[in-house]
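Allow me, if you will, to draw on your knowledge of protein folds for a short while. I have a record of one protein: its chain in single-letter code and its fold written as discrete structure tokens. I remain grateful for any guidance, and I place the record below:
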Amino acid sequence: MQRRQFVSLASGAAAAAVAAPVFLRNALAQEAGITGKTLTIGCSAALTGPLAGLGQDVKHGAEAALAHINGRGGVNGRTLQLNMVDDAYVPQRTTDNIKQMLSQGSAFALLSCVGTPNNTAILPLIEEAGVPYVAPITGASSLRKGARNVFHVRASYTDEVHRLVQRLAGMGLKGIGVVYLDNGYGREMLEDATRSLAELSLKPSVQAALATDGKNLAEVLAKVSDARPSAVLLATAGTVSVDLVRGLKKNVPGVLMAGLSVTLTSDGLRQLGEAGSGIAVTMIVPDPNRAKTQLVRDYQTAMRARGQQDFTQGSLEAYVNMRVLAEGLERAGADPTRAKLRTALAGIRNWDLGGFVVDYSGQAPYVGSRFIDLGVLGGSGRFLG
């Protein structure tokens, strides 16, 4: 009965980083990253390491949007370029990458750096430098506190967690456990889950911190197994989620699992295969494999033009993010400055990309979308109809 209920789901900073020194501010002329013919966008993401799958998705989706935009003449006569560098999901490497871009003046704006701890590390730099930054790949509410240069696109993790808890509790499930990544992202998700459960007069039946490299997986599985929850909220991300799911299915047979939009990357889903069947996840963009909206049709066309046939949530999100930045640049005019770009982005109101609306309020914190849907994965790694 629980499984049938579960499948029906488908329808239903901390300023730990060092502030940018004066030499960075002096290097940041408005002309940084821009010429008469090109405009460069910077990005630091995990192209290797535990979140490599998500980083590769971001790369594919952003490049697909970029190729389409440039194929139509670019933006105000300029070709857009993406300078994407690897940080392996290590916050210090993210900081070093962004510092280098800023000091060299090699990026006019930033796009979709990956990870909550990574974005926590770089946001003070970005605010100090005054560089427009569109669509961090994080939904952490702690990073949405009024930054004037940051324009989030995706809905918050808080909203994702709340939606999952509400649905699980609405199914009559009381024993809801939480396994969370033992870093800033995971601990914040635990707080969000605990708060959402408390609103329903519940508390986690078990809570277990999973190391980012999975070294304590056996202990986590034993702790969850002893508690025997009826459902587990997976506040994890990256490759560790794969072994976690397999372990839970083996050690706690029949347990229902629900994850966030970043819990399982596309390569993680491929690795899981049938073992991923029945897991519920939140979606912060429409289903990339169902061409029911103009946005998804445009995205699939752009991906195919790049030789990409694998349609994923991560690459669709990055495709959307690049289009939002390009829209801001278009509105900033033929002689853009960073100030003009910030103003242009803040002025986006009810912009419909074809079934997905972006709307900034005109004042910080800027959050463009509240879109959240729920899906249940089939054995193919796609959402059930």
User: Anything to note?
Assistant: The first strand starts at residue 38 and ends at 45.
